[in-house]
Design a protein that fits this description.
By secondary structure, the protein is α+β, with helices and mostly antiparallel strands. It contains two helices and six strands, in the order H-E-E-E-E-E-H-E. Strands 1, 2, 3, 4, 5 and 6 form a six-stranded mixed β-sheet that branches.
Length: 144
């Protein structure tokens, strides 16, 4: 009897980790980025994400494999925390349905600055990003 309950528990954890957890992470990222759509194909064993797709306004980013690693665990990483993205494809699309910006002076617009630049600069020395197999595609854009 205990073996049957154990098998049900293992199967439930496997379903949660392989199907529901990527969906849950994608929904949380989509809500955090507000105007973006995030899709995850699956999660791997060693902090790996497969088939990540991010759509933000007119930019679409596809990543075949996204992995988080550390120089403590692997000699492949050069920083304390390193993000390794393999098979990156960036596509810039035409603005669909967005109004064409008029010729206005920059003095009328407010210049927004990031809120936590000091914190980002302090953490940047410990963070690393490696991009492998990068392809950038720019779709035909309208001439102004």
């Amino acid at each position: 009897m205990w073996l049957a309950w154990f098998l049900v528990l293992v199967f439930s954890i496997w379903v949660f980790a392989s199907r529901l957890l990527p969906w849950l992470i994608a929904r949380i990222l989509s809500l955090y980025l507000s105007q973006a759509t995030v899709r995850l194909g699956g999660l791997g064993r060693r902090f790996e994400v497969y088939q990540l797709q991010l759509e933000l306004k007119n930019i679409e980013i596809n990543v075949r494999n996204l992995r988080f690693t550390s120089s403590i665990l692997s000699s492949e990483a050069s920083n304390l925390v390193t993000i390794i993205a393999t098979g990156v494809t960036v596509t810039v699309k035409e603005n669909e349905g967005l109004p064409v910006p008029s010729d206005t002076t920059d003095t009328a617009e407010e210049v927004t600055k990031p809120k936590n630049t000091k914190t980002l600069l302090l953490l940047a020395q410990f963070l690393g990003l490696q991009l492998r197999d990068v392809k950038v595609t720019v779709c035909p854009l309208p001439s102004f």
